[in-house]
Design brief:
By secondary structure, this protein is mainly α. Helix content is about 40%, strand content about 5%. The chain has 8 helices and 2 strands. A two-stranded antiparallel ribbon has the order 1-2. The two termini are about 55 Å apart.
Length: about 250
């Protein structure tokens, strides 16, 4: 058993054995020796206090090392190794409490992102209040897992529905739709760079949003000069785009 009393740790009977061994090694008439077998409380205090101080110091060091270990850049998901192209931004988003996995230690980075998932991430990133908000989409009932976040995103003007009053929470998000939501969420402005993509015409509905993200270093498009607006955005891409929107320093990575 372990008892804590008057600032030191008593391990019974382990430390009593320690006191006896100390007396034997001393080879003199000290408490615990054959000639003086009685170990008084005051003597135990005298011997064990320095030992307890060492134990306390060791415990502090262990706690410090555990804290350092907890902050190490270790993979949060088994399917996002350190070599993954979006690893750093995904780690950043996890640490901010904005994204989580699929419940089995995986993030599913290559899965298409759903509209409900993106709404939740945007609301968390912006720290929008989710209490006392209501959504008026016909396909998002109050018991929907993302209802409060969808309602908050709608109230903030970040998302809008479709004709007929639907939000289509389970639909996948295209790159153009993601650009539009990010541009609205962070109120980015075009900075005069006028970075355009050859597959995004000026009369395209998300032209300004796509150009705004490019101008601000959030989305660079593809090496062939395209943006591919109709392509579905993957969960890893959402994490990277949102991380860059949140933290300007990450736009240079």
């Amino acid at each position: 058993m372990i008892f804590r009393k008057k600032g030191y740790l008593l391990l019974v009977p382990v430390l009593l054995g320690f006191l006896v061994s100390q007396a034997v090694s001393a080879g003199s008439d000290v408490p615990g020796s054959s000639t003086n077998p009685v170990i008084s409380k005051s003597y135990a205090d005298q011997v064990l206090k320095p030992l307890q101080e060492q134990i306390d110091s060791f415990a502090v060091e262990v706690a410090r090392l555990k804290e350092i270990a907890s902050r190490q850049d270790l993979p949060k998901f088994i399917d996002v190794p350190t070599t993954h192209w979006g690893y750093a931004d995904i780690q950043f988003m996890v640490e901010k409490g904005i994204i989580s996995g699929m419940g089995d230690g995986k993030f599913a980075p290559n899965n298409p992102a759903r509209r409900s998932e993106v709404a939740v991430m945007l609301v968390k990133a912006l720290n929008l209040p989710i209490n006392d908000v209501t959504a008026d989409f016909t396909d998002v009932p109050v018991n929907h897992w993302a209802y409060a976040h969808i309602a908050a995103a709608q109230k903030a003007g970040i998302i809008s529905g479709f004709p007929g009053g639907e939000f289509k929470p389970n639909d996948n998000v295209t790159r153009a739709q993601m650009a539009a939501m990010l541009a609205r969420a962070y109120a980015f402005e075009r900075n005069g760079l006028n970075l355009d993509f050859k597959d995004v015409a000026k009369d395209y509905w998300a032209y300004e949003a796509i150009g705004t993200l490019a101008d601000n270093g959030i989305s660079r498009g593809f090496e062939d000069g395209t943006f591919r607006p109709a392509t579905l955005v993957r969960r890893a891409e959402v994490a990277v785009l949102l991380a860059k929107a949140m933290d300007p320093a990450r736009r240079q990575q």
